[in-house]
Amino acid sequence: MTEPRYDDLGALFINCTLKRSPERSNTQGLIDLSAHIMAANGVRVEVLRAIDHDIATGVWPDMTEHGWARDAWPSIQEKVMAADILVLAGPIWLGDNGSVTKMVIERLYGSSHLLNDVGQYAYYGRVGGCLITGNEDGVKHCAMNVLYSLQHLGYTIPPQADAGWIGEAGPGPSYLDPGSGGPENDFTNRNTTFMTWNLLHLARMLKDAGGIPAHGNQRSEWDAGCRFDFENPDYR
After folding, report:
1. How many CA within 13 A on the CB side of residue 163?
2. Residues forming a β-bridge with 133
3. Is residue 44 within 8 Å of residue 35, measured between CB atoms?
4. Apex CA 31: angle with CA 124 and CA 105, to 5°?
5. pLDDT tens digits for range 42-89
């Protein structure tokens, strides 16, 4: 059996830390683990720190068309669309995703109405995952929110598509702080590795299959009157 290749895949990690470069990002420390595995298998990997870019707030593809003087998101969206794999990574604050994570999801949503060449929503055929860091409880809650959002937009989510690290509940050291135990934590390292390979496997399968089959999910065909065997029950 021929071993699968991944060197025709591209992955984009969006780091949603609240810290501007070059300040150290604990989230970046976890990203590096996953990105290293991908790069070692020939994947084209790009990591982008969202807060370093002048991203406007809103839910339209280009917010300069809606009153903003500047908006870096359209160029970031091009990178999103060029990637087979998207990983959103960010911190926990007050038990929830940080503000930058939420803003990035809102901006992704702004292009979710666009269609691909066969009339499906534009994010179809891509896979998504997430990484969460913090020193307070909430990894699973944050991951549920991110992964639900990505699948709702059209991304395909593989099994175990999230990983995270929180250390002890309550105030304490962050992932990269000396003595935190984060980089050595077997649970986090295992889940990050499994997540990475599941993203790679599913991206390989989707690319080889030409994406999600284009039947029963084409917005363009629905708008043209096709109902794909849907029949509204008659309760009269």
Report:
1. 26
2. 91, 165
3. no
4. 40
5. 999 999 999 999 999 999 999 999 999 999 999 999 999 999 999 999
Residue type, 3: E
Answer for the pair 128, 87: CB distance below 8 angstroms, yes or no: yes
Secondary structure string (H, E, C) spanning 16-33: CCCCCCCCCCHHHHHHHH
Is the bond preceding 22 in cis, omega lying within 30 degrees of 0? yes
State pLDDT tens for residues 181-199: 999 999 999 999 999 999 9
pTM of the model: 0.94
Supply φ then ψ for residue 125, to 5 degrees: 90, 0
Residues 6+ apart with CB under 8 A from 95: 136, 137, 138, 141
What whole-number distance in Å separates Cα of residue 207 and Cα of residue 15?
Answer: 25
